[in-house]
Amino acid sequence: MAPLGGLMIRTEKQKAYEKQWKIDNKEKHRASCKRYEQKHKEKSRLKCAIRRAMKRLRTPKWLTRSDRIEMNWAYRTATNISREAGIRYVVDHIIPLQGKNISGLHCPQNLQIITRSINSSKSNNY
Asked: Which residue range(s) make up the domain with 80?
């Protein structure tokens, strides 16, 4: 990692290694994240609050009542499929709400139900 004004910049090779390590060591990574959240509760709460705010800001005013019902249906369906399949399903934004080059909207046309692992690997990429 190369220091840059106090920041550590990771190379593409290091990012690829970290990504593969997370895949190979899911339980260790999950436990590490849980410990971090417990130790840094304020940061974790702030991250969640920012996510909720971004979602609210990206929700268009022109959504109809049926659009909102459809969005709620997607979240309920993901929960039900998860329960039945035993695999965690989530509602994903096809175009990320906070993408690097493009930001999508929180609307039914931008939602899809996919497994959590696929969503995690997708990250904020389009």
From this structure: 60-126
